[in-house]
Specification:
Elements: H1 16-30, H2 43-49, H3 68-81, E1 86-89, H4 95-107, H5 116-126, E2 131-134, H6 141-151
Parallel strand pairs: 1-2
Helix pairs in contact: 3-4
Length: about 150
């Protein structure tokens, strides 16, 4: 087959051959292809999905009301508990509602059953975690992306 390495002269586009060569070099140096990264709190999911590494885009998709947001918040909370700063930028709900979901998860209680004491216990135990929340209903997609990029500096 002819070489198509120059087919795309675009940054961040790599031909299969170069990627395979890089993988071979990694195996030669490290003897493994496994990436160390961020794991979820669930061994079974980690075994299926592997660790999340910088540059990954993780998409949770599914029908409405099946727990996608709750799953994502549990993963974020787990990361924050490990001292990793995390940002939840939700386009669907304000931070107060999102944090209510987080408290519900931590207290193992439905949002409507939470009490003032639940909030106090949560604040005492987890109030200083590096967990941040962003939201906006009036920004353009580019402004949202700029805000997220700025928060990672």
């Amino acid at each position: 087959f002819p070489s198509h390495d120059k087919m795309f002269d675009i940054d961040d586009i790599a031909p299969l051959r170069r990627i395979v060569d890089d993988l071979e070099a990694r195996l030669t140096m490290n003897r493994t292809l496994s990436d160390s990264g961020i794991l979820t709190p669930w061994d079974r999911l980690n075994k299926i999905a592997g660790p999340m590494v910088p540059g990954d885009l993780v998409v949770l998709s599914g029908n409405a009301k099946i727990g996608k947001t709750t799953l994502a918040l549990n993963i974020l909370l787990n990361c924050a508990q490990q001292g990793l700063p995390v940002l939840d930028y939700c386009l669907e709900m304000r931070p107060e509602r999102t944090v209510t979901k987080v408290i519900s998860c931590c207290r193992m209680a439905a949002a409507e059953d939470l009490t003032r004491d639940d909030i106090i216990v949560f604040r005492t135990k987890w109030g200083n975690l590096p967990l941040y929340f962003g939201y906006s209903y009036n920004l353009t997609p580019d402004q949202v992306f700029d805000t997220i990029r700025e928060s990672t500096k």
